[in-house]
Every structure is written in structure tokens, then in C-alpha cells.
Amino acid sequence: MPTTAPTTPRDLTRDSDLVRAARRQDVGRTPVWFMRQAGRSLPEYRAVREGIPMLESCMRPELVTEITLQPVRRHGVDAAIFFSDIVVPLKAVGVDLDIVPGVGPVVAAPVRTRADLDRLPELTPDHVPYITDAVEQLTRELGPTPLIGFAGAPFTLASYLVEGGPSKNHERTKALMHGDPELWADLCARLAQISGAFLRVQASAGASAVQLFDSWVGALSRADYVAHVQRHSAAALAAVADLDVPRIHFGVGTGELLDLMGEAGADVVGVDFRVSLADATRRLGPSYAVQGNLDPALLFAPWPALERRVREIVEEGRQAPGHIFNLGHGVLPDVDPDVLTRVTALVHECSTRS
Ligand code: CP3
């Protein structure tokens, strides 16, 4: 009897529009998902999270599975994004931090010296068994719908660690980068290991694509990005290079960095709402798909204005080598979730290939 290789979760999603668009292959219609699609915009999310702190909820596979599936069921999006947070792997290796509602990640003892760095261990899969469990459970339930795993990029993680919390100007981070470039490089190399290992755990357990979030790297010039950041993001992305998962690389305000972020090892470059997809495609050339880029605030506009903008983005995306429809940044907590459902249906309807 001929033996057939066992079917893996990724075999089931290989022909999904999301994976195909990421690989610049033709699609039946433009795939769509939303950054922060799981979260406070959904009443069913608020209900299951009640009384459970954010970081604790990320460590419960049953709850992670339910929360990750909620927006897929409700909106009919083309992908699930794993419910977790960019600081979960830092917590897992022992960093004393919390996610404070309305504030974001807050670190008890910021990392600013060589001794602080020496206390930050590498991440192994044994630090995060609950991530493996949740991804395995999720991919079983998702079937042909791809799961996107993710991690924070070294610069964005370093900013939280060095500043001790969210920062507008990243002043201590930039002071360290320029004042002690050797310590900065060693810190980013450690964070690249942690991010890369976190991506690898998710991809090994069955995620079909990964996204590296460098949310705050738009604060840097091209020169500083090349000198102090790019190789570390490249190292994080390289950790899954052999695993057959498309890699998405996203930041906010990164119009001037798009080509450099692609070069770091991405298949798809995320574009925020400040640059049109047509400009982004010109800047990136033929080797990358793009993801984006509806302004999340436009979800509050009257439907005709929103509809016009969605149609424009879909049209611009059709000129790109590949396009995944998304927002230019995360869903805002006060948005009416029915609008997201309607946008999903509109993207599908107006992009269906004959
Ligand atoms: O649906 C999804 O997109 C998946 C889940 C997800 C979360 N955080 C859940 C979350 C993802 C992909 C992230 C990534 C993340 N976390 C980033 C990169 C993406 C981005 O927005 O640029 C960043 C910078 C963080 C750090 C962070 N964590 C912030 C700024 C906040 C918001 C704090 C607040 O309360 O306003 C968090 C908390 C967080 N992460 C929430 C969620 C759903 C809100 C917590 C809650 O519901 O109580």
C-alpha cells in the first residue's frame, strides 16, 4: 500500500488566499484580516476576559483559543492572529513586567546596563509550553483558515525594556543606541534570539504565517535603522526561514523604511495609512507583497466615505505583486464591530476575480 505523508496544519492552508497573496501568487479574492481583531471591540471578548488579567489570559490555552477564534467566527476574516502580546516572551524568560489597562506594558526594573542585560536569558520552547498547546489546539479548530503567529521586533521590545514602559520619544532608547552601541547591539541580539525563538515555537506548532511587529521603529532615520536595527530584525526573521511560513514585517510611520524592512527578510511588508499602497509598491519593487492600509479612524466615518476608501485600497492593492487587506494599525477599542464585518464582506465582494 502506498503510504501518504500525514497532513500538517500548514498543508490545509497552503492554498488559502492569505498564504497565496503573501507568496505573490494569484488569489480568488483579496484576503483580509485586522490587526487587533481580537480584543476590546468585541463584547464576547470583554465577557470572557472579565476578571482575568491580560498576561494571565495569554497563558491559558483554552482561553487563547476562544479569543483567537472570536473575530474569525464573527467577521469571516481570512486569517486568525494568535492572541498573545509582544511582551509575553519577555515575561516568560523572567522579566518582571505587567500590562496595565489603558497604559500598555510596564517593566518593573528597566534594562539599561550590562548587568541588566546579563539577567535576560535566552528563550527556549520550555519557557512557553502554553504557546505550543494553544497553537496546536487552534490550528486543529481552524482547519483551512491560516493562523498568523507573531512577535515583537528587537527595537520595539528594547524600547519597552529600556524606557520601562510606553514612550513617545524613545529618548533613553536612542541615548543607549548612540551612547553605548556595543551594549545596544548585544541587547538587540538577545531580543532577536527571544523573538526568533518565539516565532519558531508558533510556526513549529502549526502557524501558517508569522508577523514581526516593529511598531515604534518609525521613530528612526534610515541611517540609524541600517546601523543599529536592521540586522537584528533580520536575525529574528531568519529563525523561521527554513519553516515554509511567509513572513510579514510591520511598523507604524515606516514609509521611509519600507525597502529596508523588506530587505530584513520579509515576504510581505506592512504599510500604515500615511503612505498609499501605490507609493509603497513603487518603493518596494516587485519582490514583496504589501499588507494594509486602511486608517483605523476611518472605521468611524459614514459608510459611503469608508466604502469609497476601501474600494480604492483594494484597487491599489491589485497593482501590487500581492496584497493582504488590513488596517494601517490596530482596531481601536471603541469601534462598532459590525463595521469590521461589513468591511470584510466589501473587500471580498469587490475583489472577487472572475
Ligand atoms: O488581535 C490581535 O491583534 C492579537 C493580539 C495582540 C495583542 N497585542 C493583544 C493585546 C497583538 C498582535 C499585540 C501586539 C502588541 N502589543 C504590539 C504590536 C502591535 C501594535 O499595536 O503596534 C504592541 C506595541 C503591544 C504592546 C501593548 N499591549 C499595548 C500598547 C497594549 C494596549 C494597552 C491598553 O490597554 O491600551 C497592550 C495590551 C493588549 N495587547 C491588549 C490586547 C487585546 C489590551 C488588553 C486588554 O484587553 O485588557
Automatic annotation (TrEMBL):
EC numbers on record: 4.1.1.37
Gene Ontology molecular function, alphabetical: uroporphyrinogen decarboxylase activity
Gene name of this polypeptide: hemE
UniProt keywords, alphabetically: Cytoplasm, Decarboxylase, Lyase, Porphyrin biosynthesis
A single cellular component GO annotation: cytosol
Protein name: Uroporphyrinogen decarboxylase
GO BP terms: protoporphyrinogen IX biosynthetic process
Subunit and interaction comment: Homodimer.
Domain of life according to the entry: Bacteria
PANTHER family for this protein: METHYLTETRAHYDROFOLATE:HOMOCYSTEINE METHYLTRANSFERASE RELATED, UROPORPHYRINOGEN DECARBOXYLASE
Its biological purpose: Catalyzes the decarboxylation of four acetate groups of uroporphyrinogen-III to yield coproporphyrinogen-III.
